[in-house]
Amino acid sequence: MSAVPSSVNQMPGLPSAQLDPQVAQLLELIARAKRPPINALDPEDAKIAYEKSAPILDISPPAVHATEDLHVPARDGHAIPARLYTPREASWAEPLPLLVYYHGGGFTVGSVNSHDALCRLLCGEADCMVLSVDYRLGPEWRFPAAVNDAFDALHWIFAEAGRLGADPARIALGGDSAGGTLAAASAVEARNAGFAPVLQMLLYPGTCARQDTPSHRALAEGYLLTAEMIRWFFAQYLDQEASRDDWRFAPLDGGGNGADVRNVCPAWVAVAGYDPLHDEGVAYAAKLRAAGVPATLANYPGMIHDFFKLGRFVPAVAQAHADAVAALRTAFAQP
């Protein structure tokens, strides 16, 4: 991975804001370590490396009332692993709100374990149950396996919420990066199925069919997520090139128009100024607004991709965590 370009603020497509000082220091440390990037590994080694590295920069996992590992039935008979987090005792009389969460990792790496600390934080601070979904990954399972698992988990939780102590009238969807793509697609599926989630919380989501925005061009190297990594992830995930034009992969513009987002649930979209995915997150929030969907765009100009999981090293991430929690609490409090 290359060091941070010295001409950073002269590059077209970049924000005028400087990198957060701790983020800049982190990128320099990564560059000096000269470890092979994830796209230089075979997929199995990449999965192992990601699981080992995920907790290093993340916050310490907060305590919650209870966790339960369970399985969600998929349409093809597969049992989708999932983890249910509970902030306090639920009851039939007082069911709890619930967030369905899809982890990031380019549809190739990541798991409920890699995102355990974040899910615990959201559970405790937003006072909601969290169902973290371990959807199937590439290259063993290619598109649309991850999408189907995400949709099947969505249908299951709306059917089973009451049994689990969750309130079916207060269910939110969320995810980061590739998980943000799945959450955005799941919001459309929810609308199609007649469900009414209260929020889609999209953390630096991937939404476009092709990575040719100004932020992709300007931030192709040196900011944690590189153009080569993105190409590698999609090579593991996509079953064929034509799937780029499927709205379930590219809800912004797949097939030209992307997903029909009319009447989907409100959105809270977080983007990072130094993330190649910045522009497509901004554009997706604009697409939602143009369709009449309430969409809040939270911009963190000094941050990089995956910054929600850098809280141990970057103190400013705590504010983003607090903002996400506030968005969830507000959505859950709506009558």
TrEMBL record:
Alpha/beta hydrolase fold-3 domain ranges (all copies): 99-308
Any one Gene Ontology molecular-function term assigned to this protein's record: hydrolase activity
Name of this chain's protein: Alpha/beta hydrolase
Superkingdom in the source lineage: Bacteria
UniProt keyword annotation of Hydrolase present: yes
Family recorded in the similarity comment: Belongs to the 'GDXG' lipolytic enzyme family.
Keyword Hydrolase annotated: yes
Record's keyword terms, sorted: Hydrolase
Pfam families (UniProt xref): Abhydrolase_3
